[in-house]
Amino acid sequence: MSTETKQLDVIVPFLNEAESAIDFSRMAVELTEAVKSRFGLSTCFILVDDGSTDNSVELFEKHMQGKWKLLSLSRNFGKETAILAGLDHSDGDYVLLMDADLQHTTEVALEMISRLLANPELDMVYAVRAHREDDRLLTRWFAGLFYKIMNMGQRYEIPENAGDFRVMTRRFAAAMRQLRDRKRFNKGLYAWTGFRQERIEYLPAARRAGKTKYSRRKLLAFSLEGFTSFSVVPLRILSVFGAFVAVLGFLYGIKVILEVMISGVAVPGYPSLMVAVLVMGGLNLALMGLVGEYVWAALSEAKHRPIYILKSISGPAMRKQTAAS
Ligand code: UDP
Ligand code: MG
């Protein structure tokens, strides 16, 4: 690599995107040319196959042009981890993260790069969905609540509606590489670094082909991961609530004892007993499950397994081949 031209690495995690591979490869050429002419940067694509089971790898290998490499993970590790694998194999001066399904457009990418280059104080520009109207009301409501709890009493704020469509400087990428969380919640990690970041709003293009890899069930699991890696608020709410119920129970106990002492009748009260037992039993189970999530998160970190396993690397741009970590 020549020393004068700075390089932009574009990290693209993909899982079964055969239907988008050809269009993406075309878009990659377009982006490379635009980045060269507008900013004088050379571009290298780092495609990360996150355990695809279709022929997307072959299609990318056949149609990608210019400088690119393709890392294959040994199985599906999740998009967040695939991005880390890409970062581990990147040494660009700037790093752009992009989806393979063409929802992240060239125009927005160029706009983000120009913002980042224009302001040396900035270390990241990220794209925020202008609205979530395509989501169902319930999903939106849960998302809002999630961020509210997530950001309670935090020294840094995790912005709402921001995804992984981002461009960052070399030192930001280095910081991300240093964060070796096993259960990765990227939005939290970006915020945690503390670097100056700027947002731009965009309307994601419709997915051109294939379908989303994130079901509602996956989103729920994902938000639990966010909590366990970035927030103690659920546990605090739990403690406060537990204490509150305990006080109520104590007061009610005094009332029962007084009644027995004064009137001597202790038999009635089956309904209230049942309610108390069932409500408390149910709450106990649910809250223990929540505590279990945190324990599980702690256990996953403690096992010190590698975060991902690399199966193979291909492509013309393999300047640097670091071992999987
Ligand atoms: N993806 C991935 N691993 C996964 C799930 C998704 O690499 O386990 C990739 C996917 O192929 C796409 C990007 O992450 O390039 C965003 O996924 P998707 O479009 O399904 O998410 P959405 O845009 O619906 O939020
Ligand atoms: Mg998508």
Automatic annotation (TrEMBL):
Pfam families, per the entry: Glycos_transf_2
Signal peptide annotation: none
Annotated membrane topology: Multi-pass membrane protein
EC number: 2.4.-.-
TM segment ranges: 219-252, 272-296
Recorded GO MF terms: glycosyltransferase activity
EC main group: transferase
Keywords: Glycosyltransferase, Membrane, Transferase, Transmembrane, Transmembrane helix
Locations listed in the record: Membrane
InterPro entries: Glyco_trans_2-like, Glycosyltransferase_2, Nucleotide-diphossugar_trans
Domain Glycosyltransferase 2-like, residue spans: 10-172
Designated name of the protein: Glycosyltransferase family 2 protein
Record organism: Chelativorans composti
